[in-house]
């Protein structure tokens, strides 16, 4: 029986104690837990006392903030396992079997666990839809092709030999994406272990959400310019993954380009009819003031908006029903399409511009 090391970096506080206690009940016996805690809150230190009777739990406490990359790399040096399982401090293994993870790691170099955001507030409900798009659609495509350049580091597993060959995490903002890309470069296979479920606590405020997304977006730009040839070749080799990724970022993007395939005669006729109606109802001057191209653009935009909403509602409801055996609240999907996704896209665009214009990354509450 291979030894498993379960590693959880903690900053201030989190759900790590609950995770350890839950996984102690797992029938897989040859396991150890390593918690690397930095800048702990007093309440969390008291919570750690609940683990003092477990002989297979190592707790390292640092009063200063060390950063996730440093914490994980240091924790791994203390690990004795043949398989490493990583959890973020806010991750809760709702459905998990260590034996299944070990079995998957025999064949695959990178094993990721599906995550879902707990929909307990507005942010949680909208990110619940986002996470479903990522794990319910995008990463299932990755699992089917057995290749991925993407990874959500809140919960995954690798063999010791893979970790050591790559030298662990690199000191970059998106260490998980960087790690997945390097596994892809070395020819490693990817698998989404879909009989597991990891629940993630949502961020409590929109300010924290924006700060988080600024970091993810800037880190994503940094990641792209680190591996441009690898990423572009991956897109070319797996166009289905690229399409799924574009739909995940913003479903209006592919529909925008498809809208130019609309017959010009039809658009022209619709614009002319609309202009005649407006001129008749309001003022004949409108017929001479408003250009037809302007009316065409409005009609194209309206059709794009309606088709995006309808397509996304159908796609996500059907996919959600297949994966979770139930339908999701359509208002959550509408909120994601109309508010959340455009806001996220704006943050991405702003961080791309920041990366190009400025030498230093934006101010963010994060330490590597």
Write up this protein.
This protein is α/β, with parallel strands linked by helices. The chain has two domains: 4-203, Spore Coat Polysaccharide Biosynthesis Protein SpsA, Chain A (Alpha-Beta Complex), CATH 3.90.550.10; 252-328, no CATH class. Helices cover 57% and strands 14% of the residues. The protein has 15 helices and ten strands. It has helices spanning 16-24, 42-48, 68-78, 98-107, 122-145, 160-166, 175-185, 206-226, 228-237, 239-249, 252-258, 264-281, 286-289, 292-324, 330-357; strands spanning 4-11, 31-38, 57-62, 83-87, 91-95, 110-112, 115-117, 155-159, 190-192, 197-200. Strands 3-2-1-4-8-6-9 form a seven-stranded mixed beta sheet, with helices on both faces. Strands 5-10-7 form a three-stranded mixed beta sheet. α5 runs antiparallel to α10 and α5 crosses α14 (292-324). The longest helix is centred in the C-terminal third of the chain and has 33 residues, at 292-324. The mean pLDDT is 89.
- DSSP helix fraction: 55-70%
Distance between the termini: 34 Å
Largest sheet: 7 strands, mixed
The side-by-side strand order for the widest beta sheet comes to: 3-2-1-4-8-6-9
């Amino acid at each position: 029986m291979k030894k498993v090391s379960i590693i959880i970096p903690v900053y201030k506080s989190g759900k790590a104690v609950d995770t350890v206690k839950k996984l102690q009940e797992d029938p897989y016996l040859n396991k150890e837990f390593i918690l690397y805690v930095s800048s702990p809150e007093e309440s969390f230190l008291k919570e750690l006392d609940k683990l003092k009777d477990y002989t297979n739990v190592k707790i390292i406490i640092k009063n200063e903030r060390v950063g996730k990359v440093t914490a994980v790399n240091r924790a791994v040096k203390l690990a004795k396992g043949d398989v490493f399982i990583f959890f973020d401090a806010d991750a809760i293994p709702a459905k998990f079997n260590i034996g299944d993870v070990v079995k998957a790691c025999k064949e695959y170099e990178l094993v990721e666990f599906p995550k879902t955001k707990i929909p307990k507030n507005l942010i949680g409900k909208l990110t619940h839809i986002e996470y479903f798009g990522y794990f319910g659609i995008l990463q299932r495509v990755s699992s089917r092709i057995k290749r991925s350049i993407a990874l959500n580091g809140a919960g995954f597993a690798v063999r010791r030999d893979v970790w050591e060959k790559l030298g662990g995490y690199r000191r970059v903002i998106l260490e998980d994406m960087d790690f997945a890309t390097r596994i892809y470069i070395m020819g490693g296979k990817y698998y989404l272990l879909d009989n597991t479920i990891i629940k993630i606590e949502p961020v409590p405020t929109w300010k924290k959400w924006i700060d988080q997304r600024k970091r993810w977006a800037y880190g994503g730009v940094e990641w792209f310019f680190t591996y441009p040839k690898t990423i572009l070749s991956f897109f070319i080799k797996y166009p289905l993954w690229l399409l799924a990724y574009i739909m995940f970022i913003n479903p209006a993007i592919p529909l925008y380009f498809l809208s130019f395939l609309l017959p010009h005669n039809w658009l022209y006729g619709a614009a002319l009819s609309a202009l005649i109606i407006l001129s008749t109802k309001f003022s004949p001057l409108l017929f001479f003031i408003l250009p037809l191209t302007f009316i065409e653009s409005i009609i194209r935009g309206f059709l794009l908006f309606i088709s995006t909403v309808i397509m996304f509602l159908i796609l996500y409801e059907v996919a959600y029903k297949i994966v979770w055996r139930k339908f999701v609240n359509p208002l959550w999907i509408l909120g994601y399409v109309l508010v959340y996704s455009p806001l996220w896209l704006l943050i991405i665009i702003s961080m791309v511009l920041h990366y190009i214009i400025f030498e230093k990354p934006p101010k963010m509450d994060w330490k590597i």
